[in-house]
Every structure is written in C-alpha cells, then in structure tokens.
Amino acid sequence: MGLRALRLLVSLAGVAVVTFAAHSVISVNATTVGFAYLLLVLIVASTWGFADALVASIAATLAFNFFFMPPIATFTIADPQNWAALFSFLTTALIASRLSTEVKRRALDAIERQQDVERLYTFSRAILLIDSFEPFATQLVRKLAEIFRLSAAVLYERRTGEFYRAGPSDLEGLDDQIRDVASHGTCFSDSRSRAIVTAVRLGSEPIASLALQGASMPDSVLQGIANLVAIGLERARAQDLAHQIEAARQSEQLRTTLIDAMAHEFKTPLTSIKAATTSLLANPDQPLENRTELLKVADEEAEHLRKLIDDTVEMARLNTTHIDIKPELSDVAETVGEVVASMKTVLEGRPLEILADEKLLPIAFDRRLIKLAIKQLIDNALKYSPAGTPLTIRVREGDDAVALEITDHGPGIPAQEQTRIFERFYRSASVQRQVPGSGLGLNIADSIARAHHGDLCVTSRPGETTFRLVLPAEHKGERE
C-alpha cells in the first residue's frame, strides 16, 4: 500500500471514529459534531496537506448529513436551512484546510530558508579554515558537497583549466558544457543528470563554473554559493601570489646576506694570505725560517679559505624545508674536535673547554651536516660573547640520545626573542647593527637537528647562554 493511500485511509478512519463517538458513545448536538469534524479536517490539513484534507472534508460532510441532520439515516435534507448549514460547513472546512496547508507550507519554506542561510554561513567559515596541505579548489568543492549534501559537485577553474570533483557520484559527459559556462558566463540545467551548472563570477568576469547535482535549491542560494566560491578562489590566488612574492623576497634576501657573509668571512684569511705573500715578495732574501713561517701561514689560511667556501656553498645549496641525511656511525666528541680544529684561526685567543662523557658510544648521524650545525653554533657563541670570555662544549650521553651543549658568557637572549631566534633571517633589532650576520645560522642548525629527528633549544640568562643540540641514539655502535 502506498503512502498516499495509507494517509487517505487514516483520514477516513478519523471521520469514522468521530462519527461513531458522537452517534453511539456520547450524546451531543449537531453543532458540536460539526466542530469536531472541522477540528479533524484542520489536523489532517496541517499534517498531510490540502489533498488529504479535501477528502476528509467531503467524507465529514456526508457523515454529518447522514447521521446528524434530519431526516436521520438518509442523505435527504428536509429543511432548506440545513442545506445552508451543510454548505457552510463544507466551505468552512475547505477554506480552513487550505489556510492550514498554506501556513504549513510557509513554515516549511521558512525552515528551509533558515537551513540554507546556515549552510551558506557554514560554507563561508569552511572556506576561511581551508589549510594548505591540499589544493584549495579540491578542499573547497569537497566542503561544498559535504555541507549541502550533494551527490556530485564539479568546479572548473578557467585560469588553470582544471576540474575539481567531489561527492559519491560523478557527473560524466558535461565537461564541455561546464567549460562553455565558464567561458560565456551562462547557466543551464541538464534534465538527464538532474544537474544545474552556473557561472562563478568575480565582478562581471566569469572565472569558473560550478555543476551541482542532488539537491534542489532556490536561485538565491545558488548565487550565494557561486559568490562564496568566487571569493574563495580569489583569496587562494591572492595567498599564492603573496607566497610567491615572499619566496622571491627571501630568495633575494638570501642571496644578499650570503654575499655579505662571504665578504665578511673571507676578509680574515685573505688579509693573512696577502700579508704573507707581500712580505715574501718585498724581501725574498730573508732567512729560510722566516720564509717557511710565512708560507705556512699562507697555506693554513688558504685551507681555511677553502673550508669557508665549502661551507658557504653548502649553506647556499641547503634547502631547510627538506634535508636529505646520510647517517653513518660516528663519535660525536670526535666530530666536535674536528670542527674546533677547523676553526682554529677564529678561536685563537678564546679559552675553550671540551667536556665529554667517557667512552661515548658511536651513533648514526650525517657527519657533514652535523659538523655544519656545530660550526654555526660555535660561530654564534663567538659573535655574541665578549672576546676573551670562555666557551664550554659538553657532550653528554643519555639512554636514547646524545646531547651537545655549547655555552658562552655573553649578555644573554631576552625571553621574548628565544622563541624566534631559530626563524629564518630573524635577527634582534638590538644587535643587527652591531654584530654582522645573516640570520641563517641558527635556522640551518635547527633544520639539521630536526632532519635527524632531534632537537635544538636554548636556555639563556644575562651572562650565560647555552644551546643544546640533541641527537637520537636509535642506532648505536659498540664500546671500544
């Protein structure tokens, strides 16, 4: 039995119940019975609509005539006034049921409009919360299908020529029409797939098109969706442009800072080499011991210059967003010693103490990258602490990690800046004019530590600053 037939049966049963109760169970007059029938008709109208109420009205009129208007048990009406009463009852029932149905329809329309507004609001919030892990348009069309419960949603972006799809179904065979809508800014409905395709405009210019299937919606809601999609696409485009500008700015800043750093770092060994060669050329007949010493200085400074060039090239090539490591079992304390030996010239005259736990186990790490990170940390300690103050390097072994601590006795780092010093290019306003630097060293060291699944942190107070580089000891060698 269909739902419509069942509703009609229930409506007629309601008329029968009222008739039986008024005729056999309780003794009431015809006016009361008429009001009871009228109440039943209103209930049917408000519940199921005018068509069911019409059937109930006719059935109630017939029952009212047969059981409650003289002569009883016939459809004949003796008194002409009863004809007017019966007609008035039927008219009243029909008008009341019609009005009740209209009120119900308007209430449902109001609920649907409220739901549409809520969905548009939810969609607008979802656009603002879209992240950058997936393409913006992919997430946007997926959110649209979820919020509006669409069986299929397709977004075509005119600028890129890409289609973005979402929903359990797939709109096939409409790609050409969707492109045409984006090109000409039109709108059409496809009766075969029961889909509607509309242009997405930014101002008067169509920038995309949108195909929706699975939910009927008024034009105002469809236009609201199209406007939100246009705003979202333009916002994403503006963000992409801002990222490109920032990347270009950082690339230019990186180039400039590297050149400045190279010029500053290269001056010291070049000056020493120039002094040695000038002395040799000016006095070629000086004692062999003096010439040997000058050549030794030039050779050492040339080696220092070579290492500076290697480090600078490494820094320029290093992509801190993705670092490939090549781990090998190595001794951290030995690696520290190699870095200190390579920095002998810049460390000259600075007290340096290296403290290491006895018989450290070798652990797996990329020696080249860790040496670069240690060099950056030592160089940072040298730059930001007074000449003549000591540096301390400690290597400690834990259960599952090895920690390297570099301590200097400079003025310290303000608490509000300690969370920012590892940012790329960040330099404190209080020192950037006094101490040369690029703002890259600590960022590179931090990126190398994270690439090893380790950590780099700082603790600082006036007179003492300690950087702590922690490397996980997932793979250990054996003690000698």
Topology of this structure?
Layout: H1 3-25, H2 30-48, H3 50-68, H4 80-128, H5 136-147, E1 152-157, E2 162-166, H6 175-184, E3 187-190, E4 195-202, E5 205-213, H7 219-282, H8 288-317, E6 328-330, H9 332-342, H10 344-347, E7 352-356, E8 363-365, H11 367-383, E9 391-397, E10 401-408, H12 441-451, E11 455-461, E12 464-472
Parallel strand pairs: 7-9
Antiparallel strand pairs: 1-2, 1-5, 3-4, 4-5, 6-8, 9-10, 10-12, 11-12
Helix pairs in contact: 1-2, 1-3, 2-3, 2-4, 3-4, 4-5, 4-7, 5-7, 7-8, 9-11, 11-12
Keyword list:
12 strands; 480 residues; Beta-Lactamase; 56% helix; 5-stranded antiparallel sheet; 4 domains; 5-stranded mixed sheet; alpha+beta; 12 helices; Helix Hairpins
Side-by-side strand order of the widest sheet: 2-1-5-4-3
CATH topology of the largest domain: Heat Shock Protein 90
Which structural class matches the secondary elements? alpha+beta
Rg, Cα atoms, Å: 43 Å
As an assembly, this protein is: single chain
Main sheet? 5 strands, antiparallel
Strand and helix order? HHHHHEEHEEEHHEHHEEHEEHEE
Total strands? 12
Q: Helix tally?
A: 12
Number of domains: 4
Indicate the CATH class of the largest domain.
Alpha Beta
How large a portion of the residues is in β-strands, by DSSP E? 15-25%
For the termini, the CA-CA separation is 89 Å
Residue stretches low in confidence (pLDDT < 50, at least 5 long) are none
Could you tell me the mean pLDDT?
79
The residue fraction in helices comes out at 55-70%
